Task: structure prediction
Amino acid sequence: MLKPMRTTGSDDKTTHPGLTISVYRLDPATGQRTPLRPARHVPPADEPAFSLAFPPCECPRCAGRVNR
Result:
């Protein structure tokens, strides 16, 4: 039997702020971050995703395979 989902602090909000993605290198000795790419803001999707599965690859190398 599935457990009910618990509510979170964002459940009562009508909009989501989106996602900020940063790519950086972390120096293990000092813990200092070195940015590799500028941070990008990704706005929220217009519709929720109905599946978390990736679509099959359509590159020329993979497209010819029967089992993808």
Strands lie at 19-26, 33-42. The chain has a mean pLDDT of 79. The first strand starts at residue 19 and ends at 26. Residues 60-63 form the longest helix (4 residues).
